[in-house]
Amino acid sequence: MDNFLFLPRSVAAALFDAAFAGASGLLIARLWVSSCSEEKLVNGLRGRVVGCALVLLAALSAQAILAVATMIGSSNLGSIRGQFADVMTSTHAGRALLCNSAVALLLLAMAPMRRMWQSRVGTALLLSVLAILAATRAATGHPAADGDFTLPELVQFVHLASIAIWSGGVLAAGFFVLPELLHAQQIEAMGQFARRLSQTVTIALLLIVLTGLYNSYRGLGGSLAPLIGTQWGDLLDIKIVLVGLAVAMGTFNRQMLRKNRSLTPGQARRLAGVLRAEATVMLLILGVSAFLANSPPANSSWNGQREGRRYEYALLVSQCLNRFNAGGLASRIVAEEDADGCRNSE
Question: Furthest-apart CA pair in the chain: how many Å?
Answer without folding.
Answer: 72
